[in-house]
Amino acid sequence: MINFEEELKKFHPSLEVEDAAEAIYNQDLTDMADVLVKMLKESDAKTKEV
After folding, report:
1. What does the alpha-carbon distance between residue 38 and residue 31 come to, in Å, rounded to a whole number?
2. I want to staple 19 with a disulfide (CB 3.0 to 4.6 A). Which of 5, 15, 35, 47 is the partner?
3. Hey, how many other C-beta atoms are within 10 angstroms of the C-beta on 1?
4. What distance, in Å, lies between the first and last C-alpha atoms of the chain?
5. pTM value?
6. Cα–Cα separations (whole angstroms), residue 2 to 5, 8, 18, 38
7. Which residues have CB under 8 Å from 23's CB, separation 6+?
8. 5: Cβ–Cβ under 8 A, 6 or more apart, which residues?
């Protein structure tokens, strides 16, 4: 059986939309476009060395 009092003690409210968006955008995440740009720069640098 579920102990509602115990479950309420564990409860943490979710972030508001603005707070959630801020938390998401403030993270430094690398997406595929960033990976491709880095790979192209590295490839270009290697071809210039040769």
Report:
1. 11
2. 15
3. 3
4. 71
5. 0.41
6. 9, 11, 33, 52
7. 15
8. none
